[in-house]
Amino acid sequence: MDTNTKEFPWMDTSLSPKERASLLVANMDLDQKINQLHGAKATIDIYATMDGIEDDEGMEKLSEQIQVERHLDAIDALGIPRYRITNGPVGVGMGDGMPSPKAIALPMTIGVAASFDPNLAYTYGDIIGEETFTLGQHVLEGPAVCLHRLPISGRNFEYFSEDPYLSGVMGVEITKAIQSHDVIAMGKHFAVNDQEDERFRYSVEIDENVLRELYLLPFEMLVKDGEVAAIMSAYNRVRGTYATENRYLLNDILRKEWGFDGYVQSNFGQHVQLQDH
Fold first, then answer.
1. Alpha carbon of 2 to those of 8, 13, 75: distances in Å?
2. Within a 10 A sphere around the Cβ of 228, how many other Cβ atoms?
3. Distance between CA atoms of residues 80 and 113, nearest Å
4. What is the mean pLDDT of residues 197-215?
5. In terms of DSSP bridges, do strands 71-72 and 83-87 run parallel, antiparallel, or are they unpaired?
6. What is residue 185's three-state secondary structure?
7. At what angle do helices 164-179 and 217-224 cross, to 10 degrees?
8. What pTM was computed for the model?
9. In what order do the strands lie in the sheet with 263-265?
10. Is 243 exposed, middle or buried (0-12, 13-18, 19+ CB in 10 A)?
11. How far, in Å, CA of 71 to CA of 35, rounded?
12. How far apart are the C-alpha atoms of 42 and 26, rounded to whole Å?
């Protein structure tokens, strides 16, 4: 065992990831634990920020003022590096730092799904995974597997289809391709984030069979077939409870029923939801 692993035993790669994580957490104080549970980016009151903006020029000026910092701070005392996250899923999006590094602008995922070709989906994900790795990012926030519930929904360009099975198949192949580059894929937005307008406020009221058979199926496929390493919770409420603190979705279904053993990240600007095991 070298000096580094003597000082930091959780760096010993001969141990399992669970053993290493347990050793690390056991050596963290409360402030260090909290530090690793939220991004370094400041929380934005999105509605207050957008007050008075009436045209595209105003939105462009606002975008220029928002610093994109999708990372968790390093903790040198524990040997924890800066954890770099980049947005997706239609190629590598805004990453950690300003200005964001250039990347290929891929076609919308609607086109991928329209091909009905899993091999094309894998190739699409392969490009994303390779670029994410090359740019020194650790996580790609995608694929996105919510459904096309409305033809004018603002997120349709990120999602595959109105069909849950097709969305799942495409998402699984993209996940496998991204993670083949030692990059974490993050399925989003869990769950039923199928409209953009007021997505920070609205509540989805939905029957259980509809939730299971349509809206959760693609996520279940990501977990079971794609072995996705991370899931992003949604901004919206589901049956009155915010998705990012919805124990039924995040614990009962995701953890206990599906056996998900990765981590859950909130959408940026929210707190990260802790999970029971």
1. 10, 12, 20
2. 26
3. 38
4. 92
5. antiparallel
6. strand
7. 30
8. 0.86
9. 71-72, 83-87, 139-141, 184-190, 230-233, 263-265
10. buried
11. 11
12. 28
In three-state secondary structure terms, 16 is: coil
Which has the closest alpha carbon to 234: 147, 105, 138? 147
Q: Which residue has the tokens 């920020």?
A: 49
Calpha distance 22→73 (Å, rounded): 20
Q: How many CB atoms lie within 10 A of CB 192?
A: 25
Separation between Cα atoms, residue 247 and residue 273, nearest integer Å? 9
pLDDT at residue 8 greater than cutoff 70: yes
Beta strands (DSSP E) in 73-196 are: 83-87, 139-141, 184-190
Return the sign of the alpha-carbon dihedral for residues 235, 241, 246, 252.
negative
Residue in the structure block whose two tokens are 């977990």: 223
Q: What is the separation of C-alpha 69 from the centre of its chain, rounded to a whole number of angstroms?
A: 15
CA distance 8 to 270: 31
Write down the mean pLDDT value for the chain: 87
pLDDT tens figures, 107-126: 999 999 999 999 999 999 99
Q: What is the pLDDT of residues 30-79, one digit of tens each?
A: 999 998 888 776 655 555 566 667 777 776 766 665 666 778 889 999 99
Please state the rounded mean pLDDT for residues 195-217. 92
**Quick check: 146 and 190 in contact, CB under 8 A?**
no
Side by side, which strands form the sheet with 237-238?
A: 203-204, 237-238, 241-242
